[in-house]
Design brief:
Blueprint lengths: L3 E5 L8 H14 L4 E6 L4 H12 L7 E4 L4 H9 L5 E6 L5 H9 L2 E6 L3 H4 L2 H14 L4 E6 L8 H10 L5 E2 L8 H8 L12 H15 L13
Parallel strand pairs: 1-4, 1-5, 2-3, 2-4, 5-6, 6-7
The structure holds adenosine-5'-diphosphate and magnesium ion (MG).
Length: about 230
């Protein structure tokens, strides 16, 4: 089976890219898959997280993490991908050479948006990036979802409406709420599903996102990345 390469990106810092990339890598590894996490952000959040995770867990991180930057994101991933079943690439929050290089080799592009106007305003830019990437990577699938959803108010619905309006991206209806467990887990080198005591809502949300993207058995017929 061909390696599934997923890029978590966007042009906004703090939208939750590293949180989502690390949690997806952890869930894929927990499912017994061979996973490479590529840190393509020069802030190296995914690398720092993985180092913490390695020291916090006797069994190690459960996946392999490498840092790549610039055009090497493309060439490095092309070289390493055949050795793994899944590659997850965490990018920085700007339109960089690294992010474009990642987009040129991936199967899927996953973009979290916080439901506030400044974040959603980057949608046009992201939409353009996807269309441009498809000129070299025509099979690229792109997904948008809401991260840090507000517990109340109209902002979630308004953001969802906007995200649904862009034909370049498929809107994933199962987003993540704004929950302390995501930060608490990261601070201990854990995935949110591994945190104890568990936040069941945060865990369910992350599993639903994972299931939407990768778990063919749970949602038959869905247009999935791993299918
Ligand atoms: N769903 C969420 N709920 C609460 N905090 C979150 C959530 N997602 C991310 N965060 C927090 O927001 C901050 C930025 O997240 P991060 O994943 O580093 O974003 P990015 O990689 O896009 O810059 C971190 O402190 C992280 O713990
Ligand atoms: Mg990050």
């Amino acid at each position: 089976m061909e390696t599934v390469i997923t890029v978590v990106g966007g042009t906004k810092g703090g939208s939750g890219k590293s949180t989502v990339a690390t949690n997806l890598a952890i869930l894929l590894a927990a499912a017994g898959l061979d996973v490479l996490l590529v840190d393509a952000d020069d802030q190296e959040t995914a690398t720092d997280f993985t180092n913490l995770r390695e020291s916090a867990r006797p069994g190690g991180a459960g996946y392999t993490c490498v840092a790549l930057t610039g055009p090497a994101v493309r060439t490095g991933v092309q070289r390493l991908a055949p050795k793994y079943q899944h590659v997850v690439i965490d990018t920085g929050g700007r339109d960089t050479v690294s992010q474009r290089a990642a987009l040129s080799v991936c199967s899927a592009y996953l973009v979290p948006f916080a439901p506030r106007s400044f974040d959603v305003w980057t949608l046009d830019k992201v939409s353009d990036l996807v269309e441009e990437a498809r000129t070299v990577n025509p099979d690229l699938r792109a997904f948008a979802f809401i991260n840090k959803a507000d517990p109340r108010g109209n902002e979630n619905a308004e953001a969802a409406e906007l995200l649904r309006s862009r034909p370049a991206l498929t809107f994933i209806p199962t987003g993540l709420g704004s929950r302390k467990a995501f930060g608490a887990a990261a601070a201990s080198g854990l995935g949110v599903t591994e945190l104890r005591p568990q936040d069941p809502k945060a865990s369910d949300e992350m599993r639903a996102l994972y299931g939407y993207l990768f778990d063919i058995s749970k949602t038959p017929g869905r247009d999935q990345v791993g299918a």
